[in-house]
Design goal:
Length: 281
């Protein structure tokens, strides 16, 4: 599945949001004819570089080689342009497909590791829990991100350092959120937990086992980004893309399996010490 995602990202046209936001051009033009045309021209050039397919990356919990690479470099043709509602449906569809593929991969890995193999009928429930988990994380990011960017905007005119400090603090918060929520998918897949309980379990496992959890999570991030940095320049034709993507997919699935195994082992050993935090349904 990561290979299919990489082929799609590298060989097919980008999905540009130009027509999705084209209606904003008339609003800007009414506000100021001269300035509006100039602003919209600049915005249109910027939108040509945006690929809305990358919106699926946020919900694809098993990374692929090109999922964090931005605009693919293999395909040199014009991007696909759609009207507003169709683009919105495509973006939603990409995110749903990303979650669905992630659930399938994680479910298969969980079946290989779990002592009691979950039935296939549990997959829709786990998919819904993963969806709620992503929505909670995005909601937390917006909850802290919007005030941070507003504060940085006000501080920018008075103190550029103050604005950078606010954005840096928000970046640290995102890193902490990533660290403490990294084991939540394992709690959903292996522990059959709800989204809130999975996030709570992940937080408690990382907090109670920092010497074991932090190296695993940080090493996973370093390996993913470091290997992608080394492999992407080598993937410049169809054969090399498939080979590099297959190697990266094997690494990505192995790291996800390591997190599932870590959760399975640690939650059992800690449940007697923290029964509410680690076993509540």
């Amino acid at each position: 599945m990561p290979i299919l995602l990489d082929l799609w990202l590298t060989l097919l046209p980008a999905l540009a949001p130009n027509r999705w936001l084209a209606s904003m051009g008339s609003v800007i033009n009414r506000f100021s004819q001269a300035q509006g045309q100039q602003l919209w021209s600049q915005a249109n050039e910027l939108l040509q570089t945006i690929d809305l397919r990358s919106s699926a990356v946020g919900t694809y919990l098993v990374p692929s080689l090109f999922s964090g690479d931005g605009t693919p470099s293999i395909y040199a043709g014009a991007p696909w342009l759609f009207n507003g509602w169709l683009t919105l449906l495509l973006v939603l569809g990409l995110n749903i497909a990303g979650l669905g593929l992630s659930a399938l991969v994680l479910f298969w890995l969980g079946q290989q590791l779990a002592t009691t193999k979950p039935a296939l009928s549990a997959l829709p429930k786990q998919l819904w829990a993963l969806t709620k988990m992503c929505l909670i994380i995005v909601g937390l990011g917006l909850l802290f991100g919007i005030p941070a960017f507003v504060a940085a905007s006000f501080l920018l005119s008075a103190s550029a350092f103050g604005a950078q400090l606010v954005l840096a603090a928000f970046g640290v918060l995102l890193i902490a959120l990533w660290l403490y929520a990294s084991l939540a998918p394992a709690a959903i897949i292996i522990g059959q937990q709800s989204a809130l309980v999975a996030l709570y379990q992940s937080y408690n496992l990382v907090r109670q086992q920092p010497r074991e959890a932090f190296p695993l999570i940080l090493a996973s991030g370093v390996l993913i980004h470091g290997t992608a940095f080394l492999l992407r320049p080598l993937a410049n034709d169809l054969i090399s893309i498939i080979a590099a993507s297959a190697l990266f997919g094997l690494l990505s699935c192995s790291l996800q399996a390591a997190k599932l195994a870590f959760y399975s082992e640690r939650v059992g050993s800690l449940a007697h010490r923290f029964p509410v935090a680690l076993t509540q349904k």
